[in-house]
Design brief:
By secondary structure, the protein is α+β, with helices and mostly antiparallel strands. The chain is 59% helix and 13% strand. The chain binds zinc ion (ZN). Zinc ion (ZN) binds next to helix 2.
């Protein structure tokens, strides 16, 4: 994104935290077109919390935060390094989650605050933030929903892989048990195949085959 229209607020671990003028427009719209600077500031803080939710997870995955931008569509936490599809999706949820954590403040605490400026600020953590959050979860690039919902498919794949692993483990265990049973039969000649604790249907097949070997042949008609 070009540098035009951005203003660097601070630097966080070397990464510039920049704000774009379009955030002011969104704040006014989300604030219901009222003259409400405290509410606008509240919206800026919501977006900031959201982006830091991404940034914290980016660092957790040992990737590098390049830039944090706050703008009219919410913002962007740009990072460097290779993130797996799972990590990208989790990073997307980090912003959503950070923002969601502020919802109880906006809906529960804010209405009870007596001091009007603080109340207006905290009210932005409620309804306006919820609208931003829902918009942001639309599955369209560059919104977080574009990446965030991938967790469902990735999680399903992960579970399938786990199921396959556990089935393979069960099969290995059955074969081990079978091998132990066969080793046992070699050391004991008094053992009938039906005594073996072999998994069906293999045990039944062996038992049937042995039974057939001792059965008198059918007399010719
Ligand atoms: Zn985000």
């Amino acid at each position: 994104m070009s540098d035009r229209g951005f203003w660097t607020l601070i630097r966080w671990r070397g990464a510039p935290v920049r704000v774009h003028w379009s955030l002011a427009v969104s704040a006014v719209v989300l604030g219901g077109f009222r003259l409400n600077p405290a509410g606008w500031l509240g919206i800026v803080l919501v977006v900031l919390a959201h982006e830091f939710g991404h940034a914290v997870l980016v660092r957790r995955y040992r990737l590098t935060v390049e830039r944090i931008d706050l703008h009219g569509l919410g913002g962007e936490c740009a990072y460097r390094g290779y993130a797996t599809p799972w990590q990208s999706a989790v990073i997307a949820w980090g912003g959503v989650l950070a923002q969601a954590l502020l919802l109880p403040v906006g809906f529960g605490l804010a209405p009870r605050v007596d001091e009007s400026i603080l109340r207006e600020l905290l009210l932005s953590f409620g309804t306006p933030s919820l609208w931003m959050l829902l918009f942001n979860l639309l599955p369209v690039a560059p919104l977080d929903g574009h990446q965030a919902w991938n967790v469902l498919g990735l999680w399903r794949n992960r579970r399938r892989a786990e199921q396959r692993q556990s089935q393979a483990r069960q099969r290995r265990e059955e074969f081990d048990r079978m091998a132990r049973g066969l080793a046992d039969i070699e050391s004991r000649d008094d053992l009938a195949p039906s005594d073996l604790e072999l998994p069906n249907p293999l045990a039944e097949q062996i038992a049937r085959a042995v039974r057939r070997a001792y059965e008198p042949e059918e007399p010719p008609q």
